[in-house]
Amino acid sequence: MARRPFIAGNWKMNLDHLQAIALVQKLAWTMKDAGYDPKGVEVAVFPPFTDLRSVQTLIAADRFPLALGAQDVSPHEAGAHTGDVSAAMLAKLDARYVIIGHSERRADHREDDALVGAKVHAALQHGLVPVLCVGETAEDLERHGASAVPVGQLKAALEGVSADAELVVAYEPVWAIGSGTPATAETAQEVGAALRRALAETLGEDAAERTRILYGGSVKSGNIAGFLRMPDVDGALVGGASLDPAEFAAIARFEKHVGV
Ligand code: PGA
Question: How far is CA 67 from each of CA 6, 51, 168, 245, 251, rounded to the nearest angstrom?
């Protein structure tokens, strides 16, 4: 089964809703000019909560070939959870994806594997596709190598998840995020393969075969091709470079660089 490559732009805490509209317009025009074909690669943007409605309206009105995602979700259904945003609210906004367990949330908000797992369940309950982020710190890398921590995080988050669940896994080494120093394509492949084996152990072979595994951490148009050539890397989660429409569109056109 061929997995459709996925290029995801995580804007993090950048751009107000007016800036978001301007960026999405520029991105859509740049992709159109470049002859973007949604059949070959799926492209999604993950704006902050305050921008979601504006971006959703724009995508729907102009039929832009972009999927929408959020950067976080509450593990709770509804009610007395000040500041939280529920999966039901995101689904109502036509969000298809939600990033869960990003290392910045694990660090800033002390999110642990149990909370990440609860968020995965909440997202799936409402038909959202979790983009589950896993990755090791520089210290973990030194102590345990590249795969052990991400595989452990994946297994913990998938406890109780059914075999037919649709999800995306993003391998993001913490030391590579925003540092300008990406992992090598070979390391991304090694960890991607380990994550796929872990998916097979937890959810079964079918799920392992169809689930897309992304690499994230200092991805640019100049290095995307190396990652996408790897059999167990099916796309990228892009932070900083997703704020530049020309650069992000060039990443989405990785096939031109891969030469496949
Ligand atoms: P970066 O961020 O591309 O700026 O390194 C990636 C991410 O945190 O998702």
Answer: 10, 14, 14, 15, 16
Distances (CA, A) of 255 to 64, 127, 201, 212, 225: 20, 30, 31, 17, 7
> pTM for this one?
0.97
- Domain annotation covers residue 209: yes
| 170 in a structural domain | yes
CATH (domain of 175): 3.20.20.70
Structure-token pair, residue 88: 């039901």
Q: Among 219, 224, 227, 243, say which to mutate for ligand 1: greatest number of ligand atoms within 8 Å of CB.
A: 219
**Cα 237 to averaged position of ligand 1 atoms, centre (Å):** 7
Listed in sequence order, the residues at least 6 apart from 29 whose beta carbon sits closer than 8 Å to its beta carbon are none
How much is the pLDDT for 73?
A: 98
Encode pLDDT of 68-116 as tens digits: 999 999 999 999 999 999 999 999 999 999 999 999 999 999 999 999 9
